[in-house]
Backbone:
């Protein structure tokens, strides 16, 4: 069921404000290890409570917008994760779905999974749903289709009820390389990679993956 407008929900308004506060990212910024928080130093509930009281920790903005360097694999026939998070692997009749569930504390930049040329970048879907709902994949999303040597692949940046902000960095006709930055979803949600059946998955359900670095599949 389509959820009611965030305007009707105080918590959703706070999440929207949090997203706005985090929207500006310096693409050259790299977090210093000394700035990393102690375990559980920032939790969504605490951040929302602080914002409701008129406070916002600038250290969290730096942590949230961190862009760590990644070790991009160089071997032939490798496919890397499009996002940081927890991997879910689904085999369907004609396609593999590699779903990455992006957590609140993960890096929120998405990456190109394999070399190719961008076919299209589209905004699709209607409404905002909670991950796990039956209609979640019908919600607002950005779909980047890439022509590769194994055929068309697609990366879906999927929003949720509380994270309706997506940015894409690529344009149709652009040549892209494995590990290149593809876009960004604010506050965490889901990245879904659609791959032809000819690939061989190398990562299992529940694997912790890193965008542009973790090898999740291969092809010949």
Residues:
């Amino acid at each position: 069921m389509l959820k009611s407008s965030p305007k009707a929900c105080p918590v959703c308004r706070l999440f929207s404000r949090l997203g706005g506060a985090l929207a500006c990212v310096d693409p050259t910024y790299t977090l210093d290890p000394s700035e990393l928080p102690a375990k559980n130093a920032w939790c969504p509930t605490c951040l929302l409570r602080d914002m409701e009281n008129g406070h916002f920790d600038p250290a969290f903005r730096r942590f949230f917008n961190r862009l760590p360097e990644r070790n991009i694999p160089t071997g032939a026939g490798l496919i890397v994760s499009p996002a940081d998070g927890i991997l879910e692997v689904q085999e369907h009749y004609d396609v593999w779905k590699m779903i990455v569930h992006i957590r609140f504390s993960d890096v929120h930049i998405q990456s190109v999974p394999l070399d190719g040329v961008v076919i299209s970048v589209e905004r699709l879907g209607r409404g905002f749903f909670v991950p796990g709902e039956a209609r979640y994949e019908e919600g607002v999303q950005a779909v980047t289709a890439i022509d590769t040597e194994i055929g068309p692949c697609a990366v879906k940046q999927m929003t949720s009820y509380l994270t309706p902000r997506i940015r894409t960095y690529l344009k149709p006709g652009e040549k892209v390389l494995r590990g290149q930055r593809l876009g960004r979803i604010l506050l965490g949600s889901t990245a879904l990679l659609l791959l032809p059946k000819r690939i061989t998955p190398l990562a299992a359900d529940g694997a912790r993956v890193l965008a542009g670095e973790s090898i999740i599949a291969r092809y010949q």
About this structure: The chain has three helices and 14 strands. Residues 1-16, 23-40 have pLDDT under 50 and may be disordered. The CA atoms of residues 163 and 187 lie 6 Å apart. The chain has two domains: 6-64, 78-218.
